[in-house]
Amino acid sequence: MQRGITQNIASLGISQVVSKVLVYAFLIMITRSLGSELLGIFAYLLNFIIIFDVVMDYGMTPYMVKTIPGDKGQSASYFLCPLIIKYSLAVLLASCVLLYGFFIELDPVKQNAMKYAVIVLFTWPFFNSVISVFQAYERQDLYGIIYIVRNSLLLIITYIFLSQGMKVGAPLLGYAVSAFIAAFAGVFWIQKRFFTIYGTGKIKAGIITGLLRSGLPFFVSTFITALYLRIDILMLSWIRGDIETGLFKASQQILEGLLLIPFVVGNTIFPVLSRIVTEDKEQFAEIYKKSVKFLLFLVLPISVFITLTAKDIIGIMYGLKEYSGSIAALQLLVWYLVPNYLNYVSLYSLYAYSKQKQVLVVIATGFLFKAGLTLFLVPWLGYIGSCYTGIASECIILAGYSYYGKNPFARYFPWKDSLRITAASAGMFIILWLITPYTSFWLKIPFALLIYGAAVFIMRAISINEVKSIAASLAKGQ
């Protein structure tokens, strides 16, 4: 069983990396094709779609994952009943969007884009229900394959639409069509391997009421989290318009791929922390320390390097003509990764202590702080204000997690090692800053690795054996 869990996690990790690469290619393609203003419109609509998707799910996914494999006689019904609820909510939300577009005077580009966004609303519930089945049967391999299929289609279909002259509608239709095709492929797998949907699933009032009742707590949690993650783009668009939203989005999406690192580490250590939290506090402390040290060892030099090479990165990925304004945003926003990486370890540690309610309080506080600071900074500083808001809100989240986990976190945090890693990163910054005018971007990469490696060795921040030990501990955690 342990071996199967390990293989599932490994399969999911590999598929997530592949999916991230495909999404990265998709984002670079549309960013270069649309320009900052149209990218701002797309980012605004996509963030609304994601929030609406949380509303349509209504926290039902955990209930589906729990019940579908347990009652084989009603598996099809547990698949169909959530779809009924999701599409009822989709009709309601789509009607609101269309009415908004009808009564509020918008330019033709936005009006047209909103219609494509409505199409996406009617395809994502189907796709999400299909992948919930794979989660329920612990088939992370199929779960990952479906995402790879969807993201591959997203890249290809969007490219075709862009080549035909479409603008904002191209990525939105790409999302809709790719999700629809991938979902049908998933249904084929479900029919073949798990249960028959057609002819056996029935709509039952008892299941629907059970879904609505049990889904509410999960919905509140996921909805608040979604608002916290998406409010910056939405408020920036409302206050400063599409161009600044596009410039901010262009810098933000460069960093999104780097969030996979703490996500994988957190998901790896969580099962172990949950098991040993009351049994072996010394091992808990060791895993916590190693995870924090490992993430700081990665995130600090990454942040330093991106700060010094932001102009090169923006130029290579998007072109400086349209996105030169994103350079300063990237140089600032990259530093939100530092508290964010630490937040992942703290989050999963709090989950291990069964402090889910406290986590929700912290995220809700972070959302209110982020919204309030955005209202203060963005009218004054524009999208640069959103960068400061992102860093400050992650620090507030970190402070909240530290407060609720103050006993274990204060005892276990590797302060001395963290200071050494910080000093090594500072040394790397100084030397790399001095040689930056005389080297190309591609030469800066090996120079940065050599300089940081030497600084780490001199400061004795972390040894090769420690890196191997951390990797082994994480692998054991799987």
Walkthrough of the structure:
Helices cover 86% and strands 0% of the residues. With 478 residues, the chain is mainly alpha-helical. It has 2 domains: 2-240, no CATH class; 243-477, no CATH class. Helix 9 packs across helix 13, helix 11 (281-317) runs parallel beside helix 18 (415-435) and helix 14 packs parallel to helix 16. The protein is globular and about 65 Å long. The protein starts with a helix and ends with a helix. Residues 1-9 have low confidence and may be disordered.
Offer a few descriptive terms.
478 residues, mainly alpha, 2 domains, globular, disordered N terminus
Q: What topology emerges from the helices and strands here?
A:
Blueprint: H1 2-57, H2 60-67, H3 75-103, H4 108-121, H5 124-136, H6 140-163, H7 169-193, H8 205-240, H9 242-256, H10 260-276, H11 281-317, H12 320-323, H13 326-333, H14 337-352, H15 356-381, H16 383-404, H17 406-412, H18 415-435, H19 441-459, H20 464-477
Short description:
With about 475 residues, the chain is an all-alpha fold.
